[in-house]
Design brief:
This protein is an all-alpha fold. 86% of the residues lie in helices and 0% in strands. The longest helix is centred in the first third of the chain and has 28 residues.
Length: 93
């Protein structure tokens, strides 16, 4: 694969992920209900994790891959806790 094609594909992926993060941020801020805000937060952490993975591919640095793994784990736990709070009104039973 040509390096120019790889470069432009990575640039396009980064641009698309930043645009998706901005849209998720607006949904998180303007969401009419709390469920919409939780979905916006969930989408925001997934997009940030993917953006870090693309940065890791671009630079070849493994630190980005480890940071994206931590974001994925913490984001999943936060989404489960928020969903449980919205369903029952308490996180710890």
């Amino acid at each position: 694969m040509s390096t120019a094609i790889l470069y432009w594909a990575i640039m396009f992926a980064q641009t698309a992920l930043v645009a998706a993060m901005l849209l998720a941020l607006t949904r998180m801020i303007k969401g009419p209900r709390a469920q919409d805000r939780v979905l916006g937060l969930d989408t925001l952490y997934v997009n940030s994790m993917l953006l870090l993975l693309v940065f890791g591919i671009r630079t070849g640095n493994t630190l980005y891959f480890e940071a994206s793994l931590i974001i994925a784990i913490l984001g999943f736990v936060a989404t489960v806790a928020l969903a449980k709070f919205l369903m029952r009104g308490e996180v710890i039973e």
